[in-house]
């Protein structure tokens, strides 16, 4: 699963890297976050939209905008359903009723600076590196090895919220872990690793078969890891100190 992300870069930085226009509502309201949890608002990149320039020219651009983490399908009667739908498994995203419509027509990119994952005791035991059963789960941060952003594969839905305003929500697709993440957990978010992959993901004309090919784990060389403070486990904690590396007291884990 993927239940915590970092979005600390400015909208301007993200927009430059991904070739996106910035939603006017983000200007003046954006705050960096180092501990974004499900049900919180985050930044997503939606497919091309019409944007009117100051001179009256209409151009088509990707849009960097806000969305709430936790997909609320268009048919859901209760918005609280989104509290549980913050991840979608790559193996079933095409067929499950909760996600299949968004997979066809609601694909977005979630740009992040890093994501967190917690040591999975069952997974570590299977790897031959068990940890004490009563020990608090240890979080790790996973960052881009090249210094850019991760582009996570997301699905979004837009509907009228309970307050009568448009509500955009999203979920992250997860897949089997690569060797880097796999040292502590068996799942990781799907990453769109090239400009071509990102363009294909956002293009409504991309065949389903081509989309399926994008749902595997990222190459190991693109991801680096670091052990971080357990303060990350409390979603109320914030700040750049959360992503700082801390020493590993346990010998033999080999991370």
Write structural notes for this entry.
The protein is mainly beta and 255 residues long. Helix content is 13%, strand content 33%. It has a single domain (5-243), classed as SOS response associated peptidase-like (hypothetical protein yedk fold). The chain has helices at residues 11-18, 100-105, 121-126, 195-202, 208-212; strands at 5-7, 20-22, 33-36, 41-52, 58-69, 87-89, 107-112, 114-118, 139-144, 150-160, 166-176, 187-189, 223-227. A hairpin with a 5-residue loop joins strand 4 (41-52) and strand 5. The radius of gyration is 18 Å and the shape is globular. The protein starts with a strand and ends in a 28-residue tail after the last strand. Residues 250-255 have low confidence and may be disordered.
């Amino acid at each position: 699963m993927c239940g915590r992300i970092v979005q600390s870069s400015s909208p301007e930085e993200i927009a430059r890297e991904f070739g996106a226009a910035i939603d006017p509502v983000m200007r003046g309201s954006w705050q960096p976050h180092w501990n974004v949890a499900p049900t919180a608002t985050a930044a997503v990149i939606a497919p091309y939209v019409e944007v009117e320039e100051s001179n009256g020219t209409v151009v088509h651009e990707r849009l960097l905008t806000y969305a709430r983490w936790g997909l609320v399908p268009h048919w859901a009667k209760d918005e609280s359903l989104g509290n549980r739908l913050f991840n979608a498994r790559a193996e079933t995203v095409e067929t499950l009723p909760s996600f299949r419509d968004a997979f066809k027509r609601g694909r977005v990119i979630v740009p992040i600076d890093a994501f967190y994952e917690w040591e999975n005791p069952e997974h570590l035991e299977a790897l031959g590196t068990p940890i004490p059963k009563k020990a608090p789960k240890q979080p790790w941060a996973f960052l881009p090895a090249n210094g850019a952003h991760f582009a996570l594969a997301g699905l979004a839905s837009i509907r009228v919220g309970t307050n009568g305003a448009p509500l955009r929500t999203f979920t992250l697709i997860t897949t089997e872990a690569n060797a880097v993440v796999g040292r502590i957990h068996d799942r990781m978010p799907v990453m769109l690793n090239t400009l071509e992959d990102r363009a294909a993901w956002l293009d409504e004309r991309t065949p389903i078969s081509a989309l399926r090919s994008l749902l595997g784990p990222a190459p190991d060389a693109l991801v680096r890891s670091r052990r971080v403070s357990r303060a990350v486990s409390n979603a109320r904690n914030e700040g750049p100190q959360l992503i700082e590396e801390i020493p590993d007291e346990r010998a033999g884990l080999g991370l």
